[in-house]
Write a structure and sequence with these properties.
Elements lengths: L8 E4 L6 H31 L6 H18 L2 H7 L6 E3 H34 L4 H4 L2 H27 L8 E2 L6 H5 L7 H32 L5 H29 L9 H22 L2 H19 L1
Parallel strand pairs: 1-3
Antiparallel strand pairs: 1-2
Protein name: Olfactory receptor
InterPro entries: GPCR_Rhodpsn (IPR000276), GPCR_Rhodpsn_7TM (IPR017452), Olfact_rcpt (IPR000725), Olfactory_Receptors (IPR050427)
Subcellular location: Cell membrane
Length: about 300
């Protein structure tokens, strides 16, 4: 596709222009990113090597942690470097790559959250059919479909981005490349493209959130027929999932389901789902999950014993 553009690079304005605040951004982003990578990799390794975590719920949690790690890596390292740099320059091709990665792993997270909700629904509402409906082959097929869906969504976003002509200015009022800030720089009427954006990203976010809330409502409603211990365990798991869903979908719905208007708070809202959620997910899924914590302790004790020998 031939590009009608004269801009070969963009300049991020970042979260702030104040030198002291930029140092704070560096410190906070570095801490959150380090926690995100370490926490999610710890979950990935634990699920990979622990026999006790072989259920479909942990199979999907493995891919959620993977998506979180890649999603955060596509954005935060650049923010960390830019917070210490005076020239926050990104080339056109790098910008398009970031748009693709942002939407690919972001939509992957949405699809995996939906699969995790479906897994809990079957486990709690259809327990006698659980082993049949959620057998290993079915879980693998569902994850493959999630990868395909994420790829189709990201390709659509890139197609929209490549249609935008840029002839200056090239200042992106954000800390990462996404279609919303890029629409402001395009040398064309972007109403139709924004409409396509809302019908794509907006529909995925909104429909995903509604679907998840309905599924968890059905799950919680069905718990009245379970034992007290069963209700406690199911409530603990579902509460963690609902918290993650609200934390991730609230900001994304705010960003992707509105007319082509920007607000001063947009960048701070984006921080919640690009930096906050990937950092909190491993904390939520380990601190509130006894099975994961016990599996981590066993793996650590085995590793320590092996090192001593």
């Amino acid at each position: 596709m031939q590009q009608n553009k004269s801009v070969s690079e963009f300049i991020f304005l970042g979260l702030t222009q104040d030198p002291m605040k930029q140092k704070m951004v560096f410190l906070i982003a570095f801490i959150f990113y380090t926690g995100t990578v370490v926490g999610n990799l710890l979950i990935i390794v634990t699920i990979k090597f622990s026999r006790a975590l072989g259920s479909p719920m942990y199979f999907f949690l493995f891919y959620l942690s993977f998506a979180d790690t890649c999603f955060s890596t596509s954005i935060v390292p650049r923010l960390i470097v830019d917070s210490l740099s005076t020239d926050k320059v990104i080339s056109y091709s790098e910008c398009m790559t970031q748009v693709f990665a942002l939407h690919f792993f972001g939509s992957m997270e949405i699809f995996v959250l939906i699969l995790m909700a479906f897994d809990r629904y079957v486990a709690i509402c259809k327990p006698l059919r659980y082993t049949t409906l959620m057998r290993r082959q079915v879980c693998i097929i569902l994850i493959i479909l999630a990868w395909i869906g994420s790829f189709i969504h990201s390709i659509t976003q890139i197609f929209l981005a490549l249609k935008l002509p840029f002839c200056g200015p090239n200042l992106i009022d954000h800390y990462c490349c996404d279609l919303q800030p890029l629409l402001k720089l395009a040398c064309m009427d972007t109403y139709l493209i924004n409409l396509q954006l809302v019908s794509n990203s907006g529909v995925i976010c909104s429909s995903g959130f509604v679907l998840l809330m309905i599924s968890y409502f059905i799950i919680l409603h069905s718990l009245r027929n379970h034992s007290a211990e069963g209700r406690r365990k199911a409530l603990s798991t579902c509460t963690s999932h609902i918290f993650v869903v609200i934390l991730f979908f609230g900001p994304t719905i705010f960003i992707y389901t509105r007319p082509p208007t920007t607000f001063s708070m947009d960048k701070m809202v984006a921080v919640f789902y690009t930096i906050g959620t990937p950092f909190l997910n491993p904390l939520i899924y380990t601190l509130r999950n006894a099975e994961v914590k016990n599996a981590m302790r066993k793996l650590w004790s085995i590793k320590t014993t092996t090192d001593i020998k």
